[in-house]
What we know:
alpha/beta, 11 helices, single chain, 5-stranded parallel β-sheet, binds S-adenosylmethionine, Methyltransferase, Cobalt-precorrin-4 Transmethylase, Domain 2, Cobalt-precorrin-4 Transmethylase, domain 1, 5-stranded mixed β-sheet
Amino acid sequence: xxxxxxxxxxxxxxxxxxxxxxxxxxxxxxxxxxxxxxxxxxxxxxxxxxxxxxxxxxxxxxxxxxxxxxxxxxxxxxxxxxxxxxxxxxxxxxxxxxxxxxxxxxxxxxxxxxxxxxxxxxxxxxxxxxxxxxxxxxxxxxxxxxxxxxxxxxxxxxxxxxxxxxxxxxxxxxxxxxxxxxxxxxxxxxxxxxxxxxxxxxxxxxxxxxxxxxxxxxxxxxxxxxxxxxxxxxxxxxxxxxxxxxxxxxxxxxxxxxxxxxxxxxxxxxxxxxxxxxxxxxxxxx
Length: 286
Ligand code: SAM
């Protein structure tokens, strides 16, 4: 895997532990040992990991603020035959971490990009949350400003898939409060804190219940979190919400019942028969 004269190098995307140093694969160690260069989000942090395993490979810093500048140089080195490994501080690179620009540019330049899979906090959390995993939406970090955060959450309120968020200690309480408000305080959720570390805690309850637990115990507010929230309950096709009933009433004042019910069904996705029955009741009330 070292420099060769006539073949381009390989860019390895290497997952590293999210807390417990033993969670590194034998293949990841092999790759980190044999590449020409390890591109790391924080070289001091990754040097400790490499030193722990007696690996002396050179490190180059690639972080959020210099990724675009460094990418061209790294792709030139790859084209010239150097094998390079990309790591982030924890978990899988590119997952709420730098690397997207490098991977995209390398692939466009015809470089082989090889995954060396391993830990990621979102998958570790999902695997223990006890919430449906057949469909999930990874949302990463929510906006820091409350107005933007709430707007974002309101946009997710009807999402039926399980929702997965990353959060840090200083915003976890504010985020849970906004989630309870915007998604419904009785929604079931799991809070996965400090996974694979000494204070690993996995709490499950309603959003309101979890918020109360954190407010009652400041220790539970410390560390790194994955928040997993149950998806929205499937809509009952027989339940007519107030807004749809209002549209039906307006159309009924101008159109025959059958046509009004058909139009509202097309607009809202509700059952035509249910709307027809409701329309009859509305007409009889008048
Ligand atoms: N690339 C990483 C991955 O694959 O999971 C994520 C990096 S992101 C910058 C850091 C966030 O991931 C933290 O704020 C937290 O939300 C989550 N996280 C990372 N390690 C964690 C852990 N041990 N327990 C819980 N959440 C963790």
